[in-house]
Structure formats: C-alpha cells, structure tokens
Amino acid sequence: MPIANLRDSSCSVARSLSVLGERWTLLIVREALSGTTRFEAFRENLGVASDVLSERLNTLVECGVMRREAYQEAGRRTQYQYSLTETGLELHVVVGALQQWGDQNLPLPEGPSVVRQSKKTATPVRVAFVDASGHEVSEGDVAIVDTDSDSGARIAVTAV
C-alpha cells in the first residue's frame, strides 16, 4: 500500500506517517527547524535528488506543514523558499525524540552532533511524557488506551 493511502486510516500514527513517513521528509523538517529555507540549501545540506526533494516539499506544503513563498534575486528567475507553519513547528518534539533515541541507542563515538537546550537557562532539555498537571511520567507508567472513535469511550487498556 502506498504510504499516502494511510491518510484515511483510523490510526493517527498511520495518518501522520502518510505525511511524514517517506524517506527524507523528517530530515527536511530537521533542516527547516535549523533555519534552512531555500530549495538549493535543502538539496546541498541533505544530498537529496532534486525531484525527490521537490516531491517531499510539495507534500509538506499540501498538508500544511510548510508554506512556500516566492522570492526573486536581481537578474534571476523567481524561486521559492519554504518555512514551517505552526503545525510544522509542532514537529520539533518529534525530531527531538528521534534525536534523543538515536543518541542513546545509536551513539557516535564523538557524541551528539547537536544538543537541545533551554533558551532561558542554556541547560539541556529532553523529550518526555508529561501529564495534564505538568509532571513527568516514566515510559513504564504510560498506558495505551484504545477508545471508541465515535463516542471517545475507553475500550481496553494496553500496557507497554
């Protein structure tokens, strides 16, 4: 099944992957979070083929993750730059979680290539589950609860 066909799935992870699951997509988002906006910069930084990059950027724009804005330098044709929408900026935590997982489970001998830290305190931050009161919840204390999509009622509780 092509990944785009997952957009109608009842599973929100599958629907998310219909937008973000193709090769290169999350790396494009990572680059955008780091300030990359121009097509050529994405292509050079990632080493991705132009046709693949164009396809991935079009999907991100169509799905509201990025916006495309025209610009023109003197004497040149119109080109486009891409920036994350509010929806796209929400993916920072997803990219951060992937980086955190990679740093822990696939570490480089020289350590992480980037770190995430608080802008206010310059102390390291990490991705975690947080309850409605703002308290961190360990992975072992998080239950996956199936719900009836029509009523929102709990159907079953599955522990990780």
List keywords for this structure.
globular, 2 domains, 160 residues, 6 helices, two-stranded antiparallel sheet, alpha+beta, Arc Repressor Mutant, subunit A, 17% strand
Describe the structure.
The relative contact order is 0.09. The chain contains six helices and six strands. The strands form three sheets. Strands 1-2 form a two-stranded antiparallel sheet. Strands 3-4 form a two-stranded antiparallel sheet. A two-stranded antiparallel sheet has the order 5-6. The model has no long low-confidence stretch (mean pLDDT 92). It is α+β, with helices and mostly antiparallel strands. It is globular and about 60 Å long. It folds into two domains: 3-90, Winged helix-like DNA-binding domain superfamily/Winged helix DNA-binding domain (Arc Repressor Mutant, subunit A, Orthogonal Bundle); 128-160, no CATH class.
Largest sheet: 2 strands, antiparallel
Helix content: 25-40%
The residue ranges in which pLDDT falls below 50 over 5 or more consecutive positions are: none
Average residue pLDDT: 92
CATH top level assignment of the largest domain? Mainly Alpha
Q: What CATH architecture label of the largest domain applies?
A: Orthogonal Bundle
Q: What's the tally of helices? A: 6
> Helix-strand pattern, N to C?
HHHHEEHHEEEE
